[in-house]
Structures are given as structure tokens and as C-alpha cells.
Specification:
With 157 residues, the protein is mostly helical. The chain contains six helices and no strands. The longest helix is centred in the C-terminal third of the chain and has 33 residues, at 124-156. It is globular, with a radius of gyration of 19 Å. The mean pLDDT is 81.
């Protein structure tokens, strides 16, 4: 894995490309349970293939799996398929709830993530509504950015 071999990792605000999240006909916008399962499988493979495990790495795996689980839960709610995948819904929620204390007590986890997961423990439906608002803002910003870009191109001509 490249991240394991890297000497340095850099995070920037540079946007290498624009990803339109408001295209609901897109393959990435349609709900597919297999995509959710594949993401979960990837986390399991990353954990299995780690060359070493420290307490910090273990905490980040718990955090990542918990965030992924709340994402999976909100997708089920958003797509009105909770009853079709009730066993998975309960398993993901149980995972978050069984690890929330570790997450809340960790100094390595941001307050934002702690709040997100605590909210998910208390009310996954409220978290889905908040996610819907977030997606709408992203979608509107995407449309606004594209409109501005188009207007700038017209002005240049």
C-alpha cells in the first residue's frame, strides 16, 4: 500500500478535479448494496493486511469502520430500504454503539467526528436528515460553481 511506504503525506485544499454530486442519474448516485458491502470488505482487508498494529492504528480502524457504518445506515434510510437490510442495519448500529465510549474518550478523534457518531448512536434518522441537508448544500454549491465558471467563460469571449 502506497500510504504505508510513504515518508510524508500532505493534505491540501487543491481541487484536482470537480466531482458533481448533484447528478442523480450517475452510477455513483444510485444505491447499490453491493457497493456498501465492498466498502466494508475493503476496510476488513486493510485491517488484515496491516504490517503492524498500534493502539493508534486500532483506534483509527474503529473510527473509520464506525464512520463507514453510519454512512451505510444513512444510505439505507435515504433509499427507504432499511427493512430489506435490517440485519446489516442492526449490525452496523451495534458496532458504533459498542465502540462509542472508546471514540468519545480518544484524544485522537476530533470533536466533529465524536459528535457525528454520538448523533448516529442516538438517532440514525436525524443523522440521515442532516446528511440530506449537507448533500443539498454540496449540490447547490456544485451548480453555483458551474454557473460561475460558465459565466466567466462567456465574459472572456
Amino acid at each position: 500500500m502506497a500510504a504505508e511506504a510513504a515518508n510524508h503525506v500532505v493534505v491540501t485544499n487543491y481541487k484536482g478535479y470537480y466531482y458533481r454530486r448533484n447528478n442523480y442519474a450517475s452510477a455513483t448516485s444510485k444505491f447499490k448494496i453491493d457497493s456498501v458491502y465492498n466498502g466494508e470488505k475493503s476496510i476488513n482487508e486493510i485491517e488484515r493486511d496491516l504490517p503492524r498494529k498500534t493502539k493508534s492504528i486500532e483506534m483509527m480502524l474503529i473510527l473509520h469502520r464506525s464512520i463507514y457504518s453510519i454512512g451505510a445506515i444513512t444510505k439505507l434510510i435515504q433509499n427507504h430500504v432499511v427493512s430489506d437490510y435490517r440485519t446489516d442495519y442492526r449490525r452496523w448500529l451495534k458496532y458504533i454503539r459498542s465502540n462509542i465510549l472508546k471514540i468519545l474518550l480518544s484524544n485522537e478523534v476530533s470533536m466533529y467526528r465524536k459528535g457525528l457518531l454520538l448523533g448516529g448512536c442516538i438517532s440514525p434518522s436525524v443523522m440521515e436528515k442532516l446528511n440530506e441537508v449537507r448533500r443539498r448544500r454540496i449540490s447547490n454549491a456544485s451548480v453555483d460553481e458551474q454557473t460561475l465558471k460558465n459565466n466567466n467563460e462567456i465574459e472572456k469571449k
